[in-house]
Amino acid sequence: MRLDILTLFPEIFAPLFASIPARAQTSSRVQVELHNLRDWGRGRHRQVDDVPFGGGPGMVIQAEPLAAAIRAVGAMDPRPPRVIYLTPQGTPLTQTLVEELADRPRLVLVCGHYEGIDERIRESLVDQEISIGDYVLSGGELPAMVLADALIRLVPGVIDSESVARESFSTGLLDHPHYSRPAVFEGLSVPEVLLSGHHGRIEEWRREQALLNTARRRPDLLEALDLSQRDRELLTRFQPPGSGPGP
Ligand code: ADE
Q: Percent of the chain at pLDDT above 90?
């Protein structure tokens, strides 16, 4: 997968060159390219923004440098990219959306700033708009990093595929609790079943805990799932009828 990121602040992106994303690039599974929008700016100051037509506060990233940048970056690789603009007005990011995008060979992520980008670019050159949540950040850089990180870890071979299959949201449920040595920490014991060596019982306990965790913290996620009879039984064992979503 190739990710091209168009930004006024390429220096912010250090987290994409550490840890798992760094390994993904070293192993050539992922290519991340940062592009400074100012390279397509006007005049000696490489200006890319101007006051909004109609007045009002702030500045708007202008259509001309942004269009030139998106086209130039698009032409840097023969694979046509999907162009994504990060904005609070976009589709909310979910693991399902990340999974859809992870199948694409190439994405261009456009980071806005100030009051945003000229609307005509959204209409003509942006394919998709994504929000990372209902709050406003000072620019699209952090959202682009969030999206890039979530994508990179799904690229085959980047992390253990069993971990991905089991983690929160991939199963539609939140994750089960995890424990490591020591077996007793400050008087708190690890659940007995995990020390039993009985894989069947351990799997059942984990499923039960994931269901319970989800019922307690995110009942909205359970409602969207088609639970098996066994799952419903596991849930009711811990939840008295009427105390939450059940069978
Ligand atoms: N830019 C500013 N805030 C944002 C958000 N919540 N999601 C995506 N892009 C943004």
A: 87
Q: Which of 131, 134, 138, 147 for mutating ligand 1's site (highest number of atoms within 8 Å of CB)?
A: 131
What mean pLDDT is predicted for residues 15-29?
97
- Residues 17, 181: Cα–Cα separation, whole Å: 31
Q: How far apart are CA 148 and CA 35, in angstroms?
A: 15
Instruction: Say how many Å lie between the CA of residue 71 and the centre of ligand 1.
Output: 23
Enclosing domain of residue 102: 2-159
Asked whether residue 26 falls in the same domain as residue 108, the answer is yes
Which of 137, 159, 181 delimits the end of a domain?
A: 159
HSE at residue 203, side-chain half, CA atoms within 13 A, is: 4
We report the CATH number of the domain holding residue 186 as 1.10.1270.20
